[in-house]
Amino acid sequence: MDNLYKNILDFTNRHNSCPFCKSPLDYLFTNYIGFKSNGSAIISSSLSSGLFYFNMKNYKINLMINAENNLLEVLNYSESDNMSHIKNFLEQLGPHVEAYCTNDKCDSIYSYSIRTDLFRFKLTDFKNKLGMNPFIMDSETFIIDNFWIKNDWIEDSLKIYKKNDESGPVIGKLLKLNNLHADVVKQKIMTLISFY
User: Fold this and answer.
1) Is pTM, for the whole model, over 0.85?
2) Residue 162 host element (H or E)
């Protein structure tokens, strides 16, 4: 299955540039948008040298995720920390990775982003570490003209929404962007819309 990733590094290697301008992507480990603290995501950590660092204020702990081996480590672990509770709390937040185009000019035109499905963790033999299960990609989103497009990898479909339009989306087959030029993507989207 080309949508299954054994670790975050596998995901970043397979999705390392914007399909429209070929600029590198920025990766953010974050939580589902519904869970916020003071208006911001509870988890928000950029990938740096293959690692994500963040803290969980509820548990007063600092965490690190290694993108290569998919281990989450509690950096300030104490014997009173319960890894099962930490695992459950993290999973309730809906942790995942989002990636965005780093080219401001391209971002203002296409607003390309990609997102993994929610991560699931498992207990390990290490008292201060959790493992991450393999995961799949959730979606890619981008804008073409007046349309917001979502490549839904879980449902294996393409959904096209017109901005400021309450009607439902135009639905088509998943559009694999990796080898398509931006003009070809735009032409395919506009062809689908013309039949709507």
Assistant:
1) yes
2) strand 157-162
